Amino acid sequence: MARTAKPSREAEFAHAVLTRNLQVRPGENVIIEGWSHVLPWAAALARETRRLKAFPIVLYEDEDRFWDSVDAHEEEVLGTAPSHEWAALGKTDVYIHMWGAGDKLRLDKLPESRAGKLFGWNDAWYKTALKAGLRGSRLEIGRPFPSLAKAYGVNEAKWMDQVVTASMVDPDRLRAVGAPIVRALERGRRIRIHDDHGTDLTLGLAHRPAQLDYGRVSKADRKRPFRMLNMLPPGTVRVALDESVGDGTIVANRASYDETGKATGGVFQFRKGRLVRHHYDTGAHRFDRPFRQAGKGRDRPGYLAIGLNPMLRNTPQLEDREAGAITVSVGANEFLGGKNKGRFTGIVVNAGAKVEVDGRPLRLPS
Predict the structure, then answer these.
(1) Does an H or E element contain 127, and which?
(2) DSSP summary character for residue 254
(3) Which listed site, 160, 200, 270, 288, has its alpha carbon 20 to 30 Å from 19?
(4) For residue 183, how many other CB atoms are within 10 A of its CB?
């Protein structure tokens, strides 16, 4: 009797994402955007799409050839919305994006004027995707890359393993864990965060809707340009804070990552709704420079995030999704229904602190 071969890691991942998160149906059109460093994952997603009796197209770009075009100053061509690709986009039901070029450090070194041209197609993409009513995901498996792993000071293989495992957590499990947290944050007025290591902070809630990201795109999300594609791994509850309330201190025990590096040892101290002191042991410039340039609202409470995903731990650019991680931001929160406009956001992350809403303990995942 023939033995059935065990599915590869890529095949397991593809099956979980396509069936649990994206819920691909027979006859649907699926576009998979894959670069050279994620080609095995793109191939697995295409194969699984066909198993589901849907129709895949893989949009492939080679990392080295892309940078060859950049070095040749072909950004006008790279940044133009090609009509044949946009025609396919208009007929697409599901879109899978894996974060494009891997070498984000090299991309960051480009002059802003040149980088802007490279992404000149962006507005047209969202306009076409919105009209198509598609749903999709940005897969963090496209993020791990040698140069970025070095900048973050992490092992690339371990980073990738966490991302893959966390992406396969059952979304129904995350929704069940997150639902009572959403209710508490929407109904409460005050939230206290405290531990035995210097954190004791009270923030305000303003009965604003809390956003639960558990790994699926809803019908309402498909009508909003920046919600039609969710991010996998999922697992967070976010809510815009009352911008006028904030007293006490939160001490980070997790790093804060951006596109090219990280900051560690963060401390935020608030008094009467304003950030009156901030500190980072390393990477302080990643907060200080944009903070100095930011306008009104930069020192006001922004949003609160609570992580739900049990397979993450201090994972680059997923620090807010780790189960039990509490993220407090200052600056912009309008995108979550708050009053702070602008682009500036600064964060600190504490995993393991206790949380109370209006004096009642809030049960957090761990």
Answers:
(1) helix 122-132
(2) B
(3) 160
(4) 12
Residue 223 has pLDDT above 90, yes or no: no
Q: Where does the chain hold its CATH 3.40.1830.10 domain(s)?
A: 9-142
List, for residues 42-57, the tens digit of each pLDDT value: 999 999 999 999 999 9
* pLDDT one-digit tens code per residue, 329-352: 999 999 999 999 999 999 999 999
The per-residue DSSP string of 159-201 comes to HHHHHHHHHTS-HHHHHHHHHHHHHHHHH-SEEEEE-SSS-EE
Interatomic CA distance for residues 138 and 152, integer angstroms: 21
- Indicate the SS3 state at residue 277: strand
CATH number of 9-142: 3.40.1830.10
Q: What average pLDDT does the chain have?
A: 95
Q: What are phi and psi of 185, to 5 degrees?
A: -70, -30
User: What is the C-alpha to C-alpha distance for residues 134 and 173, in angstroms, rounded to an integer?
Assistant: 25
Instruction: Give the three-state DSSP class for 13.
Output: helix
Which of 33, 35, 38, 57 has its CA nearest to residue 141? 38
CA distance 191 to 131: 40
* Calpha distance 212→305 (Å, rounded): 10
Helix, strand, coil proportions of the chain in percent (round to 5)? 35, 30, 35
pTM exceeds 0.85, yes or no: yes
